[in-house]
Amino acid sequence: MSNTDKANSDKDSRHRDRMQRKKEIVDKGIASADQEKGVLLVNTGNGKGKSSSAFGMLARALGHDMQVGVVQFIKGTFSTGEEKFFRRFPEIEYYVMGEGYTWETQDRERDIKTAGEAWGKAVKMLQNNKIQLVVLDELNIALKYKYIDVKDVISALQERPFMQHVVITGRAAPTELIEIADTVTEMREIKHAYKAGIKAQKGVEL
Q1: Half-sphere exposure of 90 (CA within 13 A, CB side)
Q2: Among 3, 31, 121, 136, which residue carries the largest CB count within 10 Å?
Q3: What is the pLDDT of residue 146?
């Protein structure tokens, strides 16, 4: 065996050993995760992808023939690709309740009223044990501006059906929500096309 062949053989052997140790750790972790329950996920942070991740989960749930629901807070003055797509499915309840971003409406009382109506739709979903996944898109923004009381949200989430999954998106997730969530992901912006003068593109942001 040449020196090169021996070096490659040693490298392969070390790789197998590392992967075997890793497999043992992963298998042990999988075996210990034996609970079944509805999970609460929060996607927050200043980076792109919070809503996109939530709608990816929505597609996954539909693939499993699950009943799902969506309430979009804040967004509402323009139609998005995800709304056009997901409204095709009879298994989904879909509500776009906002009147646009807060800097567009410039009317706090109207924003509070609209957010309250959206939250009313969300509460009904969170009480319906037939809906297995609920997406509350941009709810964090409504909480940030105190359009909705975070205590009411926490209470509704804790009292929802045991196996119901919920995904909440939006920047600046409140501490109270993060504390009760099962999974929290913070999207961090490194670069964004918008800052280079590129407007929102269909299929990417819209």
Answers
A1: 0
A2: 136
A3: 94
Neighbours of 37 (CB within 10 A): 10
The rounded Cα 194 to chain-centroid distance in angstroms is 22
Residues of the chain with pLDDT under 50: 103
DSSP string, the chain: --HHHHHHHHHHHHHHHHHHHHHHHHHHHHHH-------EEEEESSSS-HHHHHHHHHHHHHHTT--EEEEE-S--SS--HHHHHHTT-TTEEEEE---S-HHHH--HHHHHHHHHHHHHHHHHHHT-TT--EEEEETHHHHHHTTSS-HHHHHHHHHTS-TT-EEEEE-SS--HHHHHH-SEEEE---S--GGGGTPPP-TTTT-
Q: Which of 142, 161, 153, 136 is nearest to 58 (CA)?
A: 136
**For the segment 35-54, what is each residue's pLDDT rounded down to a tens digit?**
899 999 999 999 999 999 99
Q: Are 98 and 118 in contact (CB under 8 A)?
A: yes
